[in-house]
Amino acid sequence: MSFEVALFLTLGAAAGGFINGLAGTGTALFALGFYLLVLPPISAVAIVALMSVLAGLQGLWVVRREIRANPIRLLRFLIPGLAGVPIGLALLSAIDAGALRIAIAALLIIYGGYFSLRKSLPAFSRRTPIIDSCVGFIGGVLGGAASVSGALPVIWLSLRPWPKAETRAVLQPFNVVILSTTIVLLFFKGAYDDTSVKALFITIPIGMIAAQIGIFVFNRLNDDMFRRLLIGLTLLIGAGIFVSEAF
Hints:
By secondary structure, this protein is mostly helical. 81% of the residues lie in helices and 0% in strands.
């Protein structure tokens, strides 16, 4: 493995691991750009998915009490999300995944840009079990169809004035489980070949250390700052999706 490849893998792992530790999502946005420069697309996606799950497991430990305190809330998102993944995969042959990703990117940019400029944040506080389940289901469908399972949950959860740990107690396990499903599918497609395995020896330790740094910063954010972080992240995710599709 050349120095250039190792450098880009290190930079991607550091960026992706940090944002996962900080926000519980966004690994692919910050890591894929580096990996795609030096790896085949399927290998890059396979590595990012696995690193996201491993970094996400560290984040789950941080909010383990909140997950145990309200498992029903999480399951409202997670079970429909799992049901949506195979539907999204089945839709791949019937829709233009690129056009769908651009449409999602536009929504994220409009939402993130609008609320990033507002002094007051949205506050949708009442219980909405049906909407929660629909968001989880659509997130799963979008994950299977266009690899953007976290886009809609991030928007919806940033609207909720929940404590940061409660928000993360939904977002983090949702991403871990949906991406674990992706890993299984990629494994059976042969994505984890010798190239991917060699790259993982660099990305996993760097990504885990970076995730710990992100968790350290997360623990020092107040609830309002974390919600603003999620809203800003929607803007960045939207811009990242748009650029990746445009170029």
